[in-house]
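pinging the channel bc i need a second pair of eyes. not urgent but kinda urgent?? the chain im working w is below, pasted from the shared doc
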Amino acid sequence: MFIQLLALLLSSPESSSGDFPASTAVPGHSPVKDIALENLIHNITALESTCSARAAFLKREYRADDSLSGSIDTLLEAVNWLGFHARWALWFLKVSVYGGKPDQKWIDPSPLLEKSLDEFRILAGHHPMSLVFLPPPSDIEVCTDGSFVSMIAHSLLVCILENSSDCREIELSVESRGDYWTFTIDSKGDSVPADCLSTQRQPDSRNMSFVLGWKLTEELGGTISTFSSQGKSTRMVIRLRTSG
C-alpha cells in the first residue's frame, strides 16, 4: 500500500484525475493525489511515532543495563534520522514533484528557528558540538510560511552535519532588516565542501539537503548566500522578504 501511494504521487496529474468533475481538476493537481499525499504523510508519521515510542520505552526499561545503553542510544539516533529523512522526502515530493505552494501568514519566526535548532540537537547525537541560538534584539513579525522556514533550517543544519565532520559549533541568528529579514547559520571548526553547497546534481547526492533548503527558500521568494573559509568555517545567510 505504501509503495502504491508513492507511485500515485509520482505519476502525472492527468493520469490520476479519474472521474472527478472538471471543476475540481486543475493542472498539476488532483483530488486523488490529495488523498494519496494525506495517507502517505499519515503512514510515515505513524511509523516515525511508533519507532520513537518503542525506542524510548527500551531506553527507560534498560537504562540500568550498561551493556545495552550504547546500542539503545544508537537506535534512538537512527530513529531520529529516519524521522528527518521521512519529512525531507515528503517535502521534496510536495514542492518539487507535487507543486505545493507556501501558505504565508504573519508570524514571529524566532521561536520556530529556535525549536528547529533544539530538534537538531537530537539529530546531532554523539557529535560533540555546541549549538547556539541568537534571537533578534526585539520581536519581529514577518509574512511567511513557518513550516517552510523550519524545514529550510533543518535541511541546512543537516547539510553541515553530513558534510562537516569536525564541526565544533553551530550558531543560528535572526535579524530584521526592514523590507527583508535574515537568519544566518554559522558553523565553526570545519567547512562544508563547495560541491555540497551547489544546486547542481552531484553523483553521490551529498548536496541533497542543501538543494531542498535552496528550493524551499526559492519558493518563498528568497535567496541563500554561502561563504566558506576552507577547513575553518561556513556561513549560510537566508534572506527572505518581510512582507512575503
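so Residues 2-97 form one domain. and The beta strands are 105-107, 130-134, 142-144, 169-177, 180-188, 223-229, 233-241. — does that match what u expected or am i reading it wrong
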